[in-house]
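Prompt: I keep going back and forth on a fold encoding question. Comparing notes only helps if you start from a blank page. Show me how you would write down a chain together with its backbone fold. Please set it down just below, with no commentary around it:
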Amino acid sequence: MMPRCGPDSVDYQRSFAGLWPRLGALLPIPGAGNATEGSEVMDLGLRDKVAVVTAASSGLGRAVALGFAREGARVVMCSRRADAIEAAADEVRRTGAEVLALPADVTAPADIERVLDAAVERFGGIDVLVTNAGGPPAGTFDRFSDADWEAAFNLTLMSAVRLIRGALPSM
């Protein structure tokens, strides 16, 4: 039997099982059982830094955006769905952080350029770039078509290449 991959697979979940408690210690997440009222947050020297976080409407991206906000960073968030990124941005704004939320598909070079340009225009530059993106769909190796592989390659690798290349001049 071929191993399954993707966020719904047991192998994927097991590989991250040990990471979440460690990540939670750095990024207390309300509702995740790892934050208490008045929790102290580590000073990571991010006050007034500009952090761009992609795929920030849920999951790890949302948690990272919240963590940056709690550290005093100004946060630029993007995700494909406008309603989802606005809901996440509202939650991040409740920390007191300055937030710019934009709908964007990181597989589209024009969307990447638009997000990075907006970040620089609004905040004057970018200090931190988190190239978060979704993973491959759940399934076995032998069931992925060439189109599935190309889409995964574009989402996970090429989006990171384009984001880094676009952000570097302002960093």
